[in-house]
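ok so heres the complex, two chains, lmk if somethin looks off
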Amino acid sequence: MAQHEQFAEDLALYSLNALQGEDRATLEEHLATCADCRLELEQLRGDGALLAMSIMGPKPPAHARQRLLDAAAKESAASPRAQQARESSSPRRSWWGFLGWAATAAVIVFAASLWKENAALKGTLASASAQAAESSRQLEDLRRIAAPIIAPDAQRITLVAMKTPPQPQGKAFYLRNRSNLVFVANNMPPLPPQKAYELWLIPTQGAPIPAGVFKPDARGSATVVNPPLPAGTEAKAFAITVENEAGATSPTMPIVMMGTGE
Amino acid sequence: MKSGDQSALAELYDRYSSVVYAVALRVLGDTGAAEDILQEVFLQLWRNPGAFDSARGSLGAWLAVITRNRAIDSLRRRKPETDIEDVIVSVAPDLAGAADRSRAAEKVRGVLGSMPTAQRSALEMAYFEGMSHSEIATKTGEPLGTIKTRIRAGLMSLRKAFAVAGGGSG
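and the predicted structre for the whole thing:
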């Protein structure tokens, strides 16, 4: 950064909001025209962040989580955003909807096959009747099985085998209407040098769209928030590949992780 | 949760609330006030997730800085000095996990411990009490220039310690 050494100390203070008065005004004037110093400012904030991030303390009280979620829900319902939020949540519902549709389609296909079977057995009235009763019972069973998958208020719990190495897992939350994407990953395997993971949005039509390059931390955790995405793209799935650090414009096989929704 | 928004919020809360709460508590020293900042920071992220640019740094570092700034504003009973969209924090480790944070905390303690007392004190007054350089100079009776030099040198020591180790947990 040494280009503007005369501002070095003021930049450090400014990064902590500790620079006041004339010095601050002079520096802000300079920052408006100096990309090198703006970059150094970002780095100084990162240095200060180390100080903040390493503070250890008690966990927040248990009720704070629900308080936050209640506040978010209340705000959403009270503001004009409510409608938008409801609309925005539709892609997520549509993922569940996808499962719902899949289950419904399975029911229809199954029903159709049973119907065909019934038709073939038309000649034997007694057996057809018994078969129809059986079909109806099986359909009812299938509906019961599908209900927890389709129900929007169903709880979703992921269970993993005990005492096995933790499996890589990624969760993408995508709001198509606002092009908002939050992706969190856990237990990602370490990468070879100069490589990074790249997240891809697989649209319903067209080529995969880059949705953020990330490197997991030492524990395999990573977060991607709002990568630049084309507006309103409908996602069929999300996938992850290993690419060079700078990222790629098209995925390099193999796909290491993929998901079409929870 | 019915909204995808809120599921994402819950996910991020589970991952980063410990960092956010710890920073707010360190600055404010009051659990109720720290919880208020925790709520405010996450609600801001929820209202405007676009404020964070993931291409420029880690979410953990960004939240830590936003929290520190908000907590200082609250401590000094002043209106927020910076808009969250204006805060860009260059690449720093994410430190979402307790083990990473614990290791980083140990390293930061080591760096702080190796600093001259006056330098460490100036850095902590600026970072955790939100004092300006002139306030620190008045409090310590030292020249303004000396305070400026100490604060920058303190931040540079942290940068150097983490750069040598390859940027921490990345």
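quick notes: Confidence is low (pLDDT under 50) at residues 166-170 of chain B. thats all i got rn
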